[in-house]
Amino acid sequence: MSVDVASCTPLVRKALTAEQAADLSRVLKAVADPARLRLLSLVAAHEGGEACVCDLTEPLGLSQPTVSHHLKVLVDAGLLTRDKRGVWAWFRLVPGALDALAAALSTAGSRDAAPSSG
Amino acid sequence: MSVDVASCTPLVRKALTAEQAADLSRVLKAVADPARLRLLSLVAAHEGGEACVCDLTEPLGLSQPTVSHHLKVLVDAGLLTRDKRGVWAWFRLVPGALDALAAALSTAGSRDAAPSSG
Question: Where is the secretion signal located (chains A, B) (predicted)?
Fold first, then answer.
């Protein structure tokens, strides 16, 4: 049930359809959580851009099952990859996924890119 | 209780603190809703980049109180301005707010901007 973040429609180029808004909100709901934002941030900042649950529980101060749940939400949203090696699963950012989400929110290229005052 | 979106800390430059993650998630929660994404999109696409509730209820298929509630959430999140003129309040995008949110999610400038494969 992974989402293709790159297919999300830019918000302000023209009015979103209900379906486009539902797709984009699904990815945004996945990131709109303090623990999941910190997980994305910790994974990105970790050595090699990769981290396992064992690296993430202590900095977050959350239990391993809770961290695993949040990681699953981020994998399902198409924002993290999961690679099982031995005992642990290793997570890294899906290349381009956060940038695609950022691009969907950006007004660059729209008539609102340089709004006039007043 | 408006949020200063521009002050949100970029996600992937280095690991977010709990407070930074809470600030960013608050703005993301405001946009992580299909109706509110469509409202932002409709306001941006409307003539002059400005719309009143009267312009927004029909395209969304929602009641005026529901649309007004969603608009208030977006104003409180620092994403829309509200200007009362006569009978109606008029809404427009806060210049730069969506772009600041996009910048907080973007990996541009981080070591993950051009991730290697594997």
Answer: none
d(CA A79, CA A98): 7
Length reported for chain A: 118
CB B40 to CB A12 under 8 A?
A: yes
Is A6 a residue whose pLDDT tops 70? no
Interchain CB contacts (distance < 8 Å): A and B: 134
pLDDT at B110 over 70: no
Phi, psi for A106 (deg, rounded to 5): -70, 145
Of residues B61 and B3, which shows the higher confidence score? B61
- Asked whether the beta carbons of A24 and A9 are under 8 A apart, the reply is yes
Which string of b and e fits A47-68 if b means at least 16 CB within 10 Å? eebebbbebbbebbebeeeebe
Task: Give the three-state DSSP class for A85.
Answer: strand
Give A1-65 as a 3 state SS string.
CCCCHHHCCCCCCCCCCHHHHHHHHHHHHHHCCHHHHHHHHHHHHCHHHEEEHHHHHHHHCCCHH
The residue of chain A nearest to residue B14, with distances taken between CA atoms, is: A45
Domains in chain B, CATH or no CATH each:
17-108 (1.10.10.10)
Q: Determine the Cα–Cα distance for residues B103 and B101; give it in Å rounded to an integer.
A: 5
In angstroms, what CA-CA distances link B1 with B40, B73, B76, B100, B106? 19, 10, 6, 18, 26
